[in-house]
Design a protein that fits this description.
- The chain starts with 11 loop residues before the first helix and ends in a 15-residue tail after the last helix.
- By secondary structure, it is of the alpha/beta class.
- A hairpin with a 3-residue loop joins strand 2 and strand 3.
- The protein has two domains: 297 residues, Aminopeptidase (3-Layer(aba) Sandwich), CATH 3.40.630; 144 residues, Glucose Oxidase, domain 1 (3-Layer(bba) Sandwich).
- The chain has 15 helices and 16 strands.
Length: 500
């Protein structure tokens, strides 16, 4: 997941509220929940589900009565084994990091297409997309004064490199853009370090995206920033940055939260702080790539499509398990479940692995262009790119009449506690088609740990619980199948101002 594009799926405050509510139950359940929220252990399967007996029975609507049995079949099948987790782990372990333009990503695409065919998906094919090709190269940062020490770092995606000998300069540490503006006269010829504490992804990520521009306008020769991550454990997080035509291009990299704080303390004590930054980063010509997809073809209206998916690319420093191999595999598994159970909806359900979400959105744009003449036949676009944790429901963007239907479908997921529907759903990859009117949906989950690992070397399969991933598959399968099979299609269009 990339850029200042969505609100955080779940806040720490919400998790705390759930934990408080749980205190009214058995002490063991409270202890298990507390441990799981700290990321020390997964909840056992029984503790992951809400107790049906704790809530009053709800009478099914006619739509729910029609689809209750098939929804239960999909849920049972999804939860029967760990096939989704095993497929995700095989994908990321085999091909590793998959940055746009890399050979590893294209080998992963070949494998996905082959395995989709092996799984019996229909109309399996790629669609071309040209993607940016940024290469990190060797890189390092070293504290030179007041003492020598290596500084763990990651160059930001899209940054230029330094001269071969690197850049050695005094550091000016600032707490935000306003402080930099006040101290701009001090920044000339220095490396500006933004030591900005975590204030939520949407606010904090602005320093990663726009930090190089602000520092260059003040006359800095390079920029550093405190890594944009929620949990400071000396982990460095990368991510996209940008330049504009109004400022000189300077290199920019992230350092750990701990080291940013140390350099800040040194400056406050009046010590001269000097750092050497070396980066070989470069941008090569655009590279050919592709979106990959497979379907279960509709039985009555095959031209009408519910599209579900995630993105195949990842940053070059981690395996991209939760961001976003998990999202791709969950959509793929949802379609495979329909095939395996002999469920063929009236309309087509298409699982897509979009390319280049992390540093360009070229896959989403290519999909829009390839299907522009048929967007009215897209019933819904459903993206999972918010981590692979216990699902709580979905976010949805559409008309009020469509929202009412989605809420009914979500009721079929109550048994796994995933029946909540919030306003506002979408994603970077589906953004280009949802802007043209296609209703959009995103998977909501208890993503309290998402920004601990996001865009870092720690995004690996062990952070994902197989049971929780299976529940996510169930949500995508039930939503996609029912909305593709209903006799009357979901009302089309984006919400009006009054419905937002």
């Amino acid at each position: 997941m990339e850029g200042p594009r969505t609100s955080e799926r779940r806040t720490r405050a919400a998790a705390g509220a759930r934990a408080t509510a749980a205190c009214a139950t058995a002490p063991l359940a409270v202890a298990l929940l507390a441990v799981a929220l700290l990321g020390l252990a997964p909840l056992p399967a029984g503790a992951q589900q809400r107790s049906d007996s704790a809530a009053a029975p709800v009478q099914d609507t006619p739509l729910q009565a029609r689809y209750r049995a098939v929804a239960d079949r999909l849920i049972d099948s999804a939860l029967a084994d760990s096939s989704a987790w095993l497929k995700m782990a095989r994908l990321v372990d085999t091909f590793g990091p998959r940055l746009a333009g890399s050979e590893a990503l294209e080998r992963a695409h070949d494998w996905i297409l082959e395995e989709m065919r092996r799984d019996g998906l229909e109309n399996v094919h790629p669609e071309p997309a040209m993607v940016p090709h940024w290469v990190r190269g060797n890189e390092s940062a070293e504290l030179v004064e007041p003492r020598r020490a290596p500084l763990p770092m990651l160059g930001l995606g899209g940054s230029i490199g330094t001269p071969r000998r690197g850049i050695t300069a005094e550091v000016l540490v600032v707490g935000d853009f306003d402080e930099l503006a006040r101290r701009a006269a001090e920044a000339r010829g220095k490396i500006v370090l933004f030591d900005v504490p975590w204030r939520g992804y949407g606010r904090t990520v602005q320093y990663r995206v726009n930090g190089a521009i602000a520092a260059a306008r003040a006359g800095a020769v390079a920029a550093l920033l405190r890594s944009v991550g929620e949990l400071p454990l000396r982990i460095v997080h990368t991510g996209v940055m940008r330049y504009d035509s109004t400022a000189t291009r300077i290199p920019i990299a992230a350092v750990t939260a701990e080291d940013a704080a140390m350099l800040h303390r040194m400056q406050e004590r009046g010590e001269r702080v000097v750092v050497t930054l070396r980066m070989e980063a470069r941008t090569l010509p655009d590279s050919p790539s592709r979106n990959v997809m497979g379907e279960v073809t509709g039985s009555e209206r095959p031209e009408e499509v519910v599209v579900i998916g995630g993105h195949t690319d990842s940053w070059d420093v981690g395996l991209g398990a939760m961001d976003d191999a998990g999202g791709v595999v969950m959509a793929w598994e949802a379609v495979r479940l329909m095939q395996r159970l002999g469920l063929r909806p009236r309309r087509t359900v298409r699982a897509v692995g979009w390319v280049n979400e992390e540093n360009g959105t070229r896959g989403g744009l290519a999909y829009r262009d390839a299907h522009r003449d048929h967007l009215r036949e897209h019933v819904l676009a459903f993206e999972s790119d918010g981590g692979v944790f216990r699902p709580t429901g979905v976010g949805f963007s559409g008309t009020d009449s469509a929202m009412a239907i989605v809420r009914q479908v979500a009721g079929l997921l109550r048994r796994i506690g995933a029946d909540e529907v919030t306003r506002g759903g979408g994603g970077v990859d589906i953004g280009p088609i949802t802007q043209l009117g296609v209703p959009s949906m995103s998977l909501n989950s208890e993503g309290i740990r998402y920004f601990w690992y996001h865009h870092s070397p720690a995004d690996t399969p062990d952070k994902i619980d197989p049971r929780e991933m299976a529940e996510c598959v169930a949500v995508m399968a039930v939503m996609a199948y029912v909305l593709a099979d209903m006799p009357e299609r979901l009302p089309w269009g984006i919400p009006s101002e009054g419905e937002r």
